[in-house]
Amino acid sequence: MPARRLAGMAGGPPPAVTARLRRYGALAGAGVLAVVCSGVGLPPPSDAGPSSDDPRWRPLAAEVASPVNGAFRGVAQRVQAPDIARSLQAYAQELQRAEARRGAAAKDWKLRRAPLRAPAPPEKKPKLTTEPGHIVGEGLPPVIVQVPTDEKVIFLTVDDGEEKDPALLRMLRSLDIPMSGFLSDEVARADYGYFREAQREGFAMHNHAINHRQMNTLDEAAQRAEICGQQDNMERELGHRPKLFRPPYGAYDEATLRAAADCGIEVVPLWASEAFPDRIEYGRADKKFHPGDIVLTHFRGEAEWDAAMTDMVRRLVDAATDQGFAIARLEDYL
């Protein structure tokens, strides 16, 4: 692009581009608001739109406009103004439809109101350090209860795999709420198909040892067998060797961390709060969520809780929303 045209971009698009955008129609106010406030950036291709290989989408996302500051960064010549306007308008409309569906789902699942939408994931994942009071050492994976972030987000993690409730997956999917599972083969093995379905839906699955034993009561060789053995199970059943391990009951010692590192584990996430169908047990004296808190719950149901997993999700989402928190995807930050 000639230097004189680049210079004209500093304070906005060149007059010719502005005129063409006006000619082809600017986005309606609601549409602009949907794009700018959605937190998800410029549009990926929709089902009805061009494929991801269509070159119009690359300059649209990388070169044309920033929804954060509204500044044009340069217009690729092959992208025409009407293409930009139509693409943004279609995307804004799809966002509005998605939020409408989410609001309807919130009513169907009897939430007080629709859950807050999580912000876009960080471009660079935060550096992790072990939580004060936990074991630290060279070569050992960090032990955390909270992800370093200023965003008002929390993370839903579900342990063991005993209850395999299809309604849980339907609820999370319809509300667009992420979940991370930590599986013990002892209870998950009855139906790994359930967790394969969850993984296909975008819910990540991680290591919780083979037999849900209290790790710090075992010698290091036995701990390594528990952790590495579950890595093998996860690879066989779900196609990957997880990088996250949560020790059963949150009990561990230095040998646990050495064994975990030997098995390819990079992070040991514990929890700051625990969710039940009838209450939230907060780990802090102020009885509130804090940015980046990891929330624990379990794959349980009527037999133990006298309530369903969907009741637990309802309790957690309502509490988070009331406090101004969204539920984000843990793997986007770790």
UniProtKB/TrEMBL annotation:
Pfam families: Polysacc_deac_1. One of its GO terms (molecular function) is hydrolase activity, acting on carbon-nitrogen (but not peptide) bonds. Residues 115-135 are annotated as: Disordered. SUPFAM superfamilies: Glycoside hydrolase/deacetylase (SSF88713). Signal peptide: none annotated. One of its GO terms (biological process) is carbohydrate metabolic process. Residues 152-334 form the NodB homology domain. This is Peptidoglycan/xylan/chitin deacetylase, PgdA/CDA1 family. It comes from Streptomyces zhaozhouensis. The lineage of its organism: Bacteria, Bacillati, Actinomycetota, Actinomycetes, Kitasatosporales.
